[in-house]
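Q: What changes when iron/sulfur cluster is included in the input?
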Amino acid sequence: MSRIQILEERCKGCRLCVEACPTGVLRPSGRFNHQGYEVMEADGQCVGCASCAVMCPDTAIRVFKSVKGAAA
Ligand code: SF4
Ligand code: SF4
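A: The predicted holo structure follows.
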């Protein structure tokens, strides 16, 4: 399974990634970073499409795409 990493200190809480995710993986976490922005969290089936990372204006998301046949 693919997964993402959210670099929380880069997040500005804009939620564009939430809207971009086709499988509803991303959501507001209720936690705030040192700049005072609510950071997102991932929960669900990530398909590794990278829409969230492309959409994020602050390059706060890294995508680790699973390779077929490799251990996830
Ligand atoms: S890589 Fe795609 S499926 Fe995974 S969290 Fe981002 S938008 Fe959603
Ligand atoms: S698009 Fe980027 S900056 Fe905006 S909420 Fe998502 S991770 Fe944070």
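Observations recorded in class: The longest strand covers residues 26-32.
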